[in-house]
């Protein structure tokens, strides 16, 4: 079947080993798993999926909420629920298209029956045998037949003209499919395909507490298999799927979970131990990285309009042993916002604007976000990005740097915003990112003055970064 996926959404990420040496505690990836109780797993999937698709909840919250109430599920069953729900959200549009062709009455079935079929069809698309899935999902005969008819429906999808096929095969809303085509051209299908893969679990070593090797040793002692990230010099891929928040090394602040692309964006700041502003600090993912770059010295001003995130940032800073951060809640616009920034005007050596954006670069982790995004939201993001860049540029001192970043892959939120800014602010010029990453890493990251990362080209989430220098 053309749309069949190779990776099974419910399989473990770490390969199973043939048996742990005696006397050694088996790692989670080595323990035998008990068979899934399919009826319980299906019920939990239906609840979580329904709350995302029919009640508009965010997928991570819906799963958290559902699984909290299902204390009777074993850990492999909880993992199966998460993976099946995420798997379906990644393939939602494809699955609906195929089922509406494979099942003569799919569109008129009641919602709960449609959802059972969707979950089952998604599992088949990820490579599970349709007969087994039909039995485990207790499908009625016409629904089971529809699963068997998925290959023909997939052939019908393949036969559509490319422009019509792309949004359905990529499971993207039409307006986003257009944006992907504008941004990636002939690579759009590959880009979207990689966005629909599961993201790796990536940690950043907190260099204030030890380097990457020390963290790797520590994680191995905690029975977590790791490998170094290919691009970021401080990253580790956690190959054992575990709840990283429960690790002792995490509680001791030795690591933060942070995508490799985000780590590279943080590297562009190259923060000296003087005065640095993280203007959209959120819960502090990059703030903590900048604090480590500054070796915990100087003043790191972390600003945001979101009180809850600022509180998270403070907690994380404590855990990470960071004490050069000044977290400040600021008004989001107007004269009060300007007044809050006055003391920092023209004073900062670096200002990072990690702007709010469409999040199109993080669809691997938040596959449901695409169904909430509208063209109007996108326009709103671009307007806000331009306004934030112009406002926070005033904090950069002569000779200082303004770093603009997003987790979007779309040109209109990235290059276009920077070009618009440069046209209105001739005192700023572009510093090519290669000058900050060093020759070897720059070579791997690729050509161009900006950082432009995507799952299909770099294996990271999608990130954009630009470094702009203010004239002396
Ligand atoms: C992409 S998130 C930042 C992520 C964060 N830098 C990290 O690495 O974890 C964008 C942040 O911008 C904040 N924001 C939105 N409007 C803002 C404004 N006018 N001033 C400052 N921050 C703003 C949002 O609250 C959000 O936390």
Automatic annotation (TrEMBL):
Family statement drawn from the similarity comment of this UniProt entry: Belongs to the class I-like SAM-binding methyltransferase superfamily. RsmB/NOP family.
Determine if Transferase is one of this entry's keywords: yes
Organism equals Myxococcus xanthus (strain DK1622)
Q: Which residues bind S-adenosyl-L-methionine?
A: 304, 354
Bias kind Basic and acidic residues: ranges:
27-37
Can you tell which superkingdom this protein's organism belongs to? Bacteria
Task: Give me the stretches of Basic residues compositional bias.
Answer: 1-15
Q: Which residues form the active site?
A: 407
Please report the name of this protein according to its UniProt entry. Answer: Methyltransferase, RsmB/NOP family
Sequence ranges of Low complexity compositional bias: 16-26
Q: Region Disordered: start and end of each range?
A: 1-37
The entry's keywords: Methyltransferase, RNA-binding, S-adenosyl-L-methionine, Transferase
Pfam families, alphabetically? Methyltr_RsmB-F, RsmF-B_ferredox
Record GO biological process: RNA methylation
Q: Which residues form the SAM-dependent MTase RsmB/NOP-type domain?
A: 191-471
- Record GO terms (molecular function): RNA binding; RNA methyltransferase activity
